[in-house]
Amino acid sequence: MTDNYLDIRIDDDVAVLTLNRPAKLNVLDVATRVLLARAIRDLGTGDLVRGIVLTGTGRAFSAGEDLQAVPSTYDEIREAVGTFHDITRAIIETKIPVIAAVNGIAVGGASEITLSCDGRIGSTAAEYFQPENHRGIIISNASSFLMGRLVRNHAMRVVLGSPRVGAEEALRIGLLDEIVAPETLIGRAVEVVRQWNSDPRITALHLGLLRPLPAEIEAAFAREDDAARQAWESGAFSAGIEGFWTSKNAASPASAQSNRDRSRS
């Protein structure tokens, strides 16, 4: 079935959730983020499936936040960040394994969603990109905690330097667990879910032991929310978004001016 830009397919006993907006590199608007968190919660009880695979359509896992709908007030920023946070919260609360099948580039908030998954399998086209530090945006999804947990001292470089991290480098530093050919990506992710959850009674207990504590996740959310407030109040958020659109729409002055006006309102 298809809901907005999220496709949900049950492959025997594994749910495959596919971000499906390939013309826009599967950017995540608020409605899609709400649907994704809801689907993860509905399926995450273990009553219907043994695990969840999260992936994207086309050449991107997801380009992250939909900057066509950029927040224009701090209340809108809180709502936007909150819907990202809630995806992480939903994943951490599941009773079954959640695997990110990273088929292409994963940007910003979408990249951060994968950090909360129990495993990350990439195709040879997988790529990570955290541009927030150069766009006036604060990282979210508890990535301020989860990034360091996965990649340790590489977290500073990944976040502050905003390099594009290809599949091999992502594997080396711990963003990915393994790399497979694109045509085998989903099949491999489904296979891992089934291997990991041979006995749901025991797997659920181990997930509870190995995942971050909910209190750790909520504390990271609170720090990120406070940083987002400071970015808004300082003007860094508006300046960063304006710079993004000025660069992106350099060949279309009218379009660039429209986006500048929106970010200032």
TrEMBL record:
Under the heading CDD domains, the entry gives:
crotonase-like
Q: Looking at the record's lineage, which domain of life comes first?
A: Bacteria
Protein family per UniProt: Belongs to the enoyl-CoA hydratase/isomerase family.
Q: What is this protein called?
A: Enoyl-CoA hydratase/isomerase family protein
Q: Which organism is it from?
A: Nocardia halotolerans
